[in-house]
Amino acid sequence: MSNVGDPPIRLLMFTSDDCIYCPPVESIVREVVGGAMKDFIYVNTVDVNENPDAANIYGVHSLPTLMINDQIVLQGGMDDDTVREILWNTLLTLAVENKERVVKSKTSLLELTHNSWQSLTGTRMLRHNVGDFIHIAPYQLTLLSLYSLDPLVPTLVYQAGNQLGKYGIMFHVLSILEPRLGKTARRSKRLKYLLDALELYFSDKEVVPTYFADEAKALSYDDSSYTIEIKGLVSGALGIDVGEPMCDYTAGMLAGVTETLLGAYAVGEEIACAANRSDSCIFRITFGDNSTKRRQPREEDKIDINNRRLKFYESSHEIAVNLEESLFMRKRLRSIAGDFVHISSLQPIIVSLKLMDDFLGSILYSSGRELGLFGWGKTLLYEILDSMFEDEEEPYSLPLDIDSGVEGLYRYMTHPTTLLTKEWGVVRLKTTEIGDYMLNVYDYCAVAGISNVGKTLCDFLAGFLVGRLSVLIGYEASVEEVHCQGTGAEFCQFKITRNN
Ligand SMILES: [Zn+2]
Ligand SMILES: [Zn+2]
Q1: What does the DSSP assignment read for 99-154?
Q2: CATH topology of domain 358-496
Q3: CB 40 within 8 A of CB 26
Q4: CATH for 106-328, among 3.50.50.60, 1.10.1200.10, 3.40.800.10, 3.30.1380.20?
Q5: In angstroms, what is the span from residue 198 Cα to ligand 1's centroid?
Q6: Ligand 2 centre and the CA of 145: distance in Å?
Q7: Residues 6 or more apart from 416 whose CB is under 8 A from it?
Q8: Fold matches, 9-102 and 358-496
Q9: How far, in Å, is the centroid of ligand 2 from the Cα of 456?
Q10: How far apart are CA 53 and CA 466, in angstroms?
Q11: d(CA 194, ligand 1 centre) in Å
Q12: Which ligand is nearest to the CA of 361?
């Protein structure tokens, strides 16, 4: 796996609570590093009263002291402009030198979260035709089909969340929710403000209306861990028992943001999950030096793979029932947040899995195919066929030929019922000169708003199309994503080859 987690530049800031020159310098650091430089730099704050050893080791004699990659660049109080100049000069030089090493996935994650932020604050809409929210059931089905396929997935999803917590704009969002967060150097206070901010982050419906969860509450904290309870979390509020926790993404994200804010290595685990016989999801985040135990693979990950798949298969049927009740009978699946969630809850999972490693593209593809074969919407698919053939003399029989199959798939993708979930926007079907099909999907939720990362990203959707089409034609046609918003196109284009 590529080493996407290691940023190239380290900035260490030594402070203490009684240092009067520290707060202005710290706020300039946040200002410089929080902007364009953020994806190049990893900031750690060290309180010399809490860590006298670190101060000795690095030869810190006066405060504040700034070290960049183990070189002291500033010591003692200075006027603001000098501080700014030193920071920009040192960091820009290093950033340019290290430019080649900046991993694309991190930049893309930043971009994604920046887009989401613009969407949430109403300055930019990512999907003009369908809006930026999707129904929670397709989100859950996507996650479920990923989890069912490979026991490695929970760990990967954790890593995706972890990167987002560390390098996304979550810190920025949390500081808006709790302004005192960026203004204190003492770790114990920071933790208290972090917990206040997290409670707001998962409950707020006005400043950051993501609708990720109903509400959150910090249950306990001490100097090496905290626990937080989240109700109605999108990945956990399935209304059914899947048999294992499903919220590794949030566990990773909480650990990531804690690590960045406290400057201490952090590990997250979900100790109770609403998808696994609990009323809510409860996370424990442990932090400390590097000896804090690494995240262990979960017990559930080792369970017999066939049983696990069967369990997930049953669960996906129950979610499909929930979905129909939510769409057609106005039954609410979540009491406070309602049944739609901002697309930023799903995008980083799909995008970072693909960008982490090309191999993971095949996991995404297989999971999508599984969902296409067995997932929600097959009854609708047969109803569509009935209406497609209602004027024919003979009743149709499966398998269909490829032309009728693709027509059926297209009608499914553009059916008002399917569109209610808001997974994608407009869909168009075209035929090439040699008779292959081009299915153009606009505003697919996983990639809407992303700019060119040089890769197609929608392996999951490609797999889904293969699976759904094979229900109709009886074999797996070749479906390849030839253009994607991830390669700079305006829409995602899937080529369905006529002859395999
Ligand atoms: Zn959960
Ligand atoms: Zn795409």
Answers
A1: GGGS-HHHHHHHHHHHHHHHHHTTS--S-TTT-SEEEHHHHHHHHHHHHHH-TTHH
A2: Muramoyl-pentapeptide Carboxypeptidase; domain 2 (3.30.1380)
A3: no
A4: 3.30.1380.20
A5: 16
A6: 19
A7: none
A8: no
A9: 5
A10: 59
A11: 20
A12: 2
Cα–Cα dist 173/162, whole Å: 16
8 A C-beta contact, residue 24 and residue 8: no
The token duo for 125 is 């809409």
List, as ranges, residues with CB under 5 A of the ion ligand 2. 447, 458, 484, 492
CA dist 269 and 291 (Å) reads 16
CATH topology of domain 9-102: Glutaredoxin (3.40.30)
In the chain, domain spans: 9-102, 106-328, 358-496
Q: Which ligand is nearest to the CA of 232?
A: 1
pLDDT tens, N- to C-terminus, the chain (500 residues)? 333 344 457 788 889 988 888 988 888 888 777 765 666 677 778 888 887 777 777 778 889 999 887 788 888 888 887 888 788 777 766 765 554 444 566 777 777 778 888 888 888 889 988 999 999 999 999 999 888 877 778 888 898 898 888 877 787 788 888 888 877 778 888 999 999 999 999 998 888 888 999 999 999 999 999 999 999 999 999 888 888 899 999 999 999 999 988 888 899 999 999 999 899 999 999 998 766 665 655 655 555 667 777 878 888 888 888 999 998 888 888 989 999 999 988 888 888 888 776 667 888 998 999 999 988 898 999 999 999 999 888 888 999 999 999 999 999 999 999 999 999 999 999 999 999 999 999 999 999 988 788 889 999 999 999 999 999 999 999 999 999 999 999 999 999 998 76
Task: Tell me how far the alpha carbon of residue 112 lies from the centroid of ligand 2, in angstroms.
Answer: 14
